[in-house]
């Protein structure tokens, strides 16, 4: 059996890592990949370990996390001996081929009595505008600009989600579709509407819980396919407002989920249109529903921008709010890289 080994921070994994590991795996019978982490890394080691196991289910993926591990040869006089011991602790079997995308692999291979295989464009400084020029720090600095090089779980991590929130007949679906077209991205529609068209609007606790969980499941499943930004017609927080109105309380499952990066709270300042599936059209009921929907966002401390006015004004306000979110998050990436 021919055994291979490689290590890296994968902070985060990108296309350069993926091609390196897939190439290495094709050359050995068994490939071990060691994810190296520090406790204060901007992305936790356990998260990266899970990502790598998703990406490479046929490889042995292990985690080494130790604040005392030297990071550069100048950090410790026994740098190479320490890392040789670390590798052998995780890979007690002999290493036949040591893979690396950088020159350090030659020295590590020598200490492990392994054959060094220098894979990837970074070794030769090739393809600097593509795979050879990728680095974790560059991705963290501008994940938006490196989107095409991010594998599925990393896209799901970095993607920004915008959820439209508000009562019936305020134009959520129309605005969501327009925003998805404007940003050339995917739209997650409202599951609750499909559910009620199939089963009626007499929803009980189990119906409302399913509606909220199904909505969140669709959002998370769509994240890797969005173009950096995901637009959702609604999420489980709106289902929580529906629950308060319909059954008088909110099931815990409807507020225990990943919150959106921005909620656009559409005001109930446009005429109500009954399409046959709507419930709270009477003015007082609609006003109460609007107050409950706003309270859900306030109580869960969700990031919210209120959207008012006619449909064109709503679109303009929504775009301004989303553009501000993108600028803020891209700036945070540059500041923490």
From TrEMBL:
Which Pfam families does the UniProt entry name for this protein? AAA_28
InterPro entries assigned to the protein according to its UniProt record, in alphabetical order = Cyt_trans-like, NAD_biosynth-regulator, NadR/Ttd14_AAA_dom, P-loop_NTPase, Rossmann-like_a/b/a_fold
Show the SUPFAM superfamilies listed in the entry: Nucleotidylyl transferase, P-loop containing nucleoside triphosphate hydrolases
Q: Identify the residues that the record assigns to the NadR/Ttd14 AAA domain, covering every copy.
A: 162-314
Q: Which keywords label this protein?
A: Nucleotidyltransferase, Transferase
Molecular function terms from GO: nucleotidyltransferase activity
Q: PANTHER family of this UniProt entry?
A: NADR_TTD14 AAA DOMAIN-CONTAINING PROTEIN, TRIFUNCTIONAL NAD BIOSYNTHESIS/REGULATOR PROTEIN NADR
Q: What is this protein called?
A: Nicotinamide-nucleotide adenylyltransferase
* Organism of this sequence: Sphingomonas swuensis
Cite the source lineage.
Answer: Bacteria, Pseudomonadati, Pseudomonadota, Alphaproteobacteria, Sphingomonadales
